[in-house]
Amino acid sequence: MTSVKVYLDNEQDTVDLGKRLAAIISPPLMLNLSGELGAGKTTLSRGLIQGLGHKGAVKSPTYALVEPYEFDDFDLYHFDLYRLSDPEELEFMGIRDYFTQRSICIVEWPDRGHGLLPDADIFIQINYAGERREVEILSGSDKGRQLLSKLK
To answer: Potential cystine with 2: which of 80, 95, 102, 139 (Cβ 3.0-4.6 Å)?
Structure first.
């Protein structure tokens, strides 16, 4: 398993890391984001989505569970499973239909969907480190390992 550790000083650093990730990823891809409330998962997602070319606002899909973004060559689905009370709810929303060969899926709070989500290519753990954030990025597949080698 390949890993990269990054320290972020502020919100802009978090957005910039998302943009760095956007420069190296391509579908199909599953990316899991974990960390405490307020750690920067949605901010990182915003940087990634805007780095891919989205011009509008990027909002947290906390209440809708998923926010879709359409691009010319792929679809991106941003999930926030924080409010999920039972992983079986994902079955009712047709979760498997989102994970296609032309999709990039970002999942915040992936542990809440345990057993119903495919294995991630990239795992990102964001932790508080005083006023900073410590971000550990891990590969979960061969594709993830190849992508992380480009991030270093």
So the answer is: 139
Token pair, residue 42, equals 């949605």
Instruction: Sort 7 into a burial class: Cβ within 10 Å, 0-12 / 13-18 / 19+.
Output: exposed
pLDDT for 110-145, tens place per residue? 999 988 999 999 999 999 999 999 999 999 999 999
The rounded distance, in Å, linking the Cα atoms of 111 and 89 is 14
Q: Give the residue ranges of DSSP H helices in the chain.
A: 11-22, 41-51, 89-92, 142-151
Interatomic CA distance for residues 42 and 59, integer angstroms: 8
Judge contact between 4 and 151, C-beta under 8 A: yes
Residues shown for the chain = 152
From CA 152, how far away is CA 143, in angstroms rounded?
15
Q: How far is CA 87 from its chain centroid?
A: 18
Q: What is the pTM of this model?
A: 0.94
DSSP 44-70: HHHHHHHHTT--S-----TTTSEEEEE
